[in-house]
Amino acid sequence: MYDNTPLSLGEITDHCRALVFAILEVEDHTAKELLTYVLWERIDLLYRTLDMPVEVEESVRGLLR
Prior knowledge:
about 75% helix, mainly alpha
């Protein structure tokens, strides 16, 4: 099921860590390439989330509670 709720910084970081681990453990080149692409998307999301203005970030966090 797809959940459209914005991810917290901790959740995005956990995704990145899990993807890096999977990339290091998987031996199939195609799977590594796909996981690397997803990792790139998550790193970009992390960058954009960290770059948010404070008032927007606080309102997003208020929605998550």
